[in-house]
From TrEMBL:
GO molecular-function terms, A-Z: phenylacetyl-CoA 1,2-epoxidase activity
Xref: InterPro entries: Aromatic_CoA_ox/epox, Ferritin-like, Ferritin-like_SF, PaaA, PaaA_PaaC
Native species: Candidatus Accumulibacter meliphilus
GO biological process, alphabetically ordered: phenylacetate catabolic process
Protein name: 1,2-phenylacetyl-CoA epoxidase subunit A
Pfam families linked to this entry: PaaA_PaaC
Gene Ontology cellular component annotations, sorted alphabetically: cytosol
Location of the region described as Disordered in the Swiss-Prot/TrEMBL record: 1-23
Amino acid sequence: MYTQSMDIPDAAEKGPPESASAASELANAFEARIDADGRIEPQDWMPDNYRQTLVRQISQHAHSEIVGMLPEGNWISRAPSLKRKAILIAKVQDEAGHGLYLYSAAETLGTSREQMLEGLHSGRAKYSSIFNYPTLTWADVGVIGWLVDGAAIMNQVPLCRCSYGPYARAMVRVCKEESFHQRQGYEALLVMMKGTDEQRAMVQDATNRYWWKCLAMFGPPAADSPHSALAMRWGIKRISNDELRQKFVDATVPQAKVLGVTLPDPDLKWNEARQHYDYGEIDWQEFWTTVAGNGPCNKERLATRVKAHSDGQWVRDAAMAYARKYRERTITEAV
Ligand code: 3HC
């Protein structure tokens, strides 16, 4: 899908445009394409900060998919039935795939996967705050599907219309798979809610613990979101953090009613004038503490991720050795 990345010179190789007028022509062509809601492709000229904004967002997104495998991966060996185990394995594998599409999309911007992984493993790069909370019971797996993947879809569907072609195309498949993730979580919870009082209490408890974290997942409100204005001007982001959060609340309240759980917010009520649900204050202090690396599971997640990477070194070495031998054999046979 992203093999075009092999053909594009990186930014340094391309060098600056030869004259000031050539540079302004390129900038004008870029702006005109953005204004016409067109797509920017890897071969096209783009301003440095458009490229940097994309690398930052896409690599953070890729890291979120990969780290997001960990809280649910913890439950694969403890899934309550063969059917639930098969579904969970498939879902966790999908997240790995999403990470790979996204790393590939970021590579088309001239950033290597090694650089991005180094950023993650050294703790410099961010990934979604939501994956720094523990998964205490099986109901958490269902609630992650319902609420976390539900929030992810709300945020990611508009990214299918992102102005950068490879990111937008990757998101189409990601969103289809996220839909399955959301549904499997909701269905698992519906089954639990028809079970025992203890199961219903588990679902309510998991909902209580995850609800506010999912609202924060959409990112800070406009005043504290330094990247939003430009990202929206460039068609990278299409809808603001706050608007997406509101859409998520509006879509989720009726789902909670069908499920039979209470969303843990006394201020949650329909506002006839706004035609939206009002909701209470998000604890942004807690969010920023987690984003800064001091949430309940940040250190554990990073340590698990780094260990998985170093334990997998022999697989990468073996794949490279095989590719080298295959290439050498093909060349020998050809001469
Ligand atoms: N967790 C961690 N950091 C967050 C965050 C969150 N939930 N929300 C915002 N931030 C960070 C930003 O990365 C930025 O940090 P930086 O300057 O160091 O890069 C800072 O807070 C300010 O936020 P902004 O709103 O200005 O940043 P953005 O314009 O990038 O908006 C975003 C944040 C809405 C998360 C946007 O980057 C985005 O839409 N990203 C793509 C989607 C994504 O990454 N989703 C993550 C979840 S993926 C997932 O859940 C996997 C699925 O399988 C469940």
